[in-house]
C-alpha cells in the first residue's frame, strides 16, 4: 500500500494556524483552526494544495480533527457541530480559490462528506474515498465550516496498490486498485524463471481494493531438470545439484560422459 503524507497549506478564509502536541506526544505539529460561533452565518473555507494524481484510480483522504459542542458556549450567534468536506478534480492547475474568483466557482466543488464529532473518542477520525475521472490530473480538497469550532490536526491523502508478489511460482506486478471499492483488477501472472504453467492458460490473480491479492487461479511449476530453492525458502526454480558417489562394480570402466546441466557440470559413470 502506497501512502502520501499531505503537507497542508491554507488559503486564509478565517482559518488560523496553531501548534498542537502530536500523537506521539513528543513533536509539535501544525493544525488549522476555525471558531466563528460569535459571527452570524459564517462561511469559511480552507484548501489543500494541488495533489497530483500519479497512478491513482481512487484517492483516500484520512482526517484527524476535533470539534467542540455548542453547549460549551454562552449565547453563540452561530453554532454547528458539523463541517463539510469537498473535492474538485482538475485537468490542469488553475488558481480558483482566491477570494475574487472562488464565489464564482463554488458550484464546481463536489461534496464528499459531512463530518461530525465522534463522541466515543478524544480525537475524531474519518477516511473518505473519491473516484477519479479519466481526465483528472490534479485534485484539491476543501473544508467548509459554518459556525463550528474545529481543529484540523492531520490530513493524509493516499491511494492503494497491491504490492508486487510471487505466489505459486508466479510473479504478479505492482497493481493499482480499481476506481471502485467493490471491483477487483484482474492481472495475468508470469511464471518465474525456469518455470512453466501447469495448465493451458496463464495464471491470473485479482487485486482487491484493500491492496491484497485474492482468488489466485492457476499456478506454475519448475521445468524438468529444475527444482525448488527450498534451502532459501524462495519460490525460485534452480538447477538440480547431484552428489555423485562412485564405486566400481567391476574392474573395467567403459565410458565417461560429461553432461552439462544448467550452470552445473557433473559426470555420469557408465559401468559394465
Through-space gap between termini: 63 Å
Count of extended strands: 25
Low-confidence stretches: 1-12, 243-272
Shape descriptor: elongated
* CATH architecture assignment name of the largest domain: Sandwich
- Roughly what percent helix? under 10%
What's the CATH superfamily of the largest domain, by name? Answer: Galactose-binding domain-like
The CATH topology of the largest domain corresponds to: Jelly Rolls
| Overall CATH class of the largest domain | Mainly Beta
The amount of beta strand, in percent, is: over 45%
Helix-strand topology string: EEEEEEEHEEEEEEEEEEEEEEEEEE
Instruction: Please indicate the count of domains.
Output: 2
* Chain-averaged pLDDT: 80
What does this structure look like?
- This protein is mostly beta strands and 272 residues long.
- It folds into 2 domains: 4-158, Galactose-binding domain-like (Jelly Rolls, Sandwich), CATH 2.60.120; 161-239, ephrin a2 ectodomain (Immunoglobulin-like).
- The protein is 3% helix and 50% strand.
- The protein is built from 1 helix and 25 strands.
- It has one helix at residues 99-105, and strands at residues 2-5, 16-21, 28-35, 44-47, 51-52, 58-67, 82-90, 110-116, 124-131, 138-145, 149-159, 161-162, 165-167, 170-172, 175-176, 185-188, 190-191, 195-197, 204-207, 213-217, 220-222, 226-229, 234-239, 253-261, 264-271.
- Strands 1, 2, 3, 6, 9 and 11 form a 6-stranded antiparallel sheet that branches. Strands 4, 5, 7, 8 and 10 form a 5-stranded antiparallel sheet that branches. Strands 13-14-17 form a 3-stranded antiparallel sheet, with no helix packed on it.
- A hairpin with a 5-residue loop joins strand 19 (204-207) and strand 20 (213-217).
- The longest helix has 7 residues, at 99-105.
- The termini are far apart.
Amino acid at each position: 500500500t502506497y501512502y502520501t503524507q499531505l503537507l497542508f497549506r491554507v488559503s486564509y478564509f478565517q482559518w488560523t494556524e496553531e501548534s498542537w502536541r502530536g500523537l506521539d506526544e513528543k513533536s509539535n505539529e501544525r493544525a488549522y483552526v476555525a471558531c466563528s460561533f460569535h459571527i452570524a452565518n459564517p462561511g469559511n473555507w480552507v484548501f489543500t494544495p494541488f495533489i497530483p494524481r500519479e497512478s491513482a484510480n481512487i484517492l483516500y483522504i484520512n482526517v484527524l480533527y476535533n470539534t467542540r459542542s455548542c453547549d460549551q458556549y454562552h449565547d453563540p450567534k452561530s453554532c454547528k457541530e458539523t463541517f463539510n468536506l469537498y473535492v474538485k478534480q482538475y485537468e490542469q492547475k488553475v488558481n480558483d480559490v482566491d477570494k475574487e474568483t472562488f464565489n464564482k466557482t463554488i458550484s464546481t466543488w463536489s461534496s464528499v462528506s459531512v463530518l461530525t464529532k465522534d463522541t466515543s473518542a478524544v480525537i475524531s477520525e474519518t477516511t473518505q474515498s473519491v473516484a477519479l475521472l479519466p481526465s483528472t490530473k490534479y485534485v484539491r480538497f476543501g473544508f467548509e465550516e459554518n459556525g463550528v469550532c474545529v481543529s484540523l490536526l492531520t490530513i493524509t491523502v493516499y491511494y492503494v496498490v497491491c504490492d508486487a508478489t510471487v505466489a505459486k511460482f508466479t510473479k504478479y506486478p505492482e497493481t493499482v486498485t480499481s476506481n471502485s471499492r467493490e471491483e477487483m483488477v484482474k492481472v495475468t501472472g508470469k511464471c518465474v524463471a525456469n518455470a512453466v504453467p501447469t495448465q493451458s492458460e496463464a495464471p491470473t490473480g485479482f487485486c482487491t481494493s484493500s491492496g491484497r491479492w485474492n482468488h489466485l487461479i492457476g499456478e506454475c511449476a519448475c521445468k524438468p531438470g529444475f527444482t525448488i530453492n527450498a534451502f532459501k525458502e524462495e519460490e525460485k526454480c534452480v538447477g538440480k545439484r547431484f552428489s555423485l558417489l562412485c564405486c566400481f562394480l567391476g574392474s573395467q570402466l567403459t565410458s565417461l560422459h560429461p553432461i552439462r546441466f544448467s550452470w552445473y557440470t557433473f559426470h555420469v559413470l557408465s559401468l559394465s
